[in-house]
């Protein structure tokens, strides 16, 4: 078992200007109107690929709070084999994987698929969200940030 080298809160404290910039980049896609549930699936998938336990847990918990279906959360790692994802979600997940796995490159078919599902503006903002989560993943994985604990439900705490 690995231990944290630093924690998420340390990033805010030690480099608040860098933290604020990464945070702002991560928020622009939702502010531009892209679906928050779709963005969370994309962020979760990139975080899985990058092995960032902190970000995986953060985006699972956030996804649950905003109503992403549990089945999608369970199946996002194998989205190609799961018919539960829409064409738009598939295009976004394929784009997220392509941009996260850049050393492998990607063909024109991935770009063509995402271009069919997203406007030019949406694609720029989707790309900014993917770039942002990859930056967060680099911090979380490098410093082995401790994943958040799942909040205890009020009724579970009293039983």
UniProtKB/TrEMBL annotation:
Domain of life of the native organism: Bacteria
Record's keyword annotation contains Electron transport: no
Domain Carboxymuconolactone decarboxylase-like stretches: 16-98
One Pfam assignment: CMD
GO molecular function: peroxiredoxin activity
SUPFAM superfamilies: AhpD-like (SSF69118)
Record keywords, A-Z: Oxidoreductase, Peroxidase
Protein name: Alkylhydroperoxidase
Native source species: Bradyrhizobium betae
Taxonomic lineage of the native organism: Bacteria, Pseudomonadati, Pseudomonadota, Alphaproteobacteria, Hyphomicrobiales
């Amino acid at each position: 078992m690995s231990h944290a080298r630093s924690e998420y809160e340390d990033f805010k404290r030690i480099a608040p200007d860098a933290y604020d910039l990464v945070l702002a980049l991560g928020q622009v896609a939702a502010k531009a109107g892209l679906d928050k549930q779709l963005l969370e699936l994309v962020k979760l998938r990139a975080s899985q690929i990058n092995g960032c336990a902190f970000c995986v847990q953060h985006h699972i918990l956030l996804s649950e709070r905003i109503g992403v279906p549990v089945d999608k959360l369970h199946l996002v790692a194998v989205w190609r084999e799961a018919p539960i994802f829409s064409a738009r979600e598939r295009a976004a997940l394929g784009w997220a994987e392509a941009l996260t796995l850049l050393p492998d490159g990607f063909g024109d078919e991935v770009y063509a698929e995402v271009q069919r599902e997203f406007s030019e503006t949406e694609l720029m903002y989707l790309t900014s969200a993917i770039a942002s989560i990859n930056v967060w993943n680099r911090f979380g994985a490098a410093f082995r940030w401790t994943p958040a604990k799942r909040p205890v439900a009020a009724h579970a705490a009293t039983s």
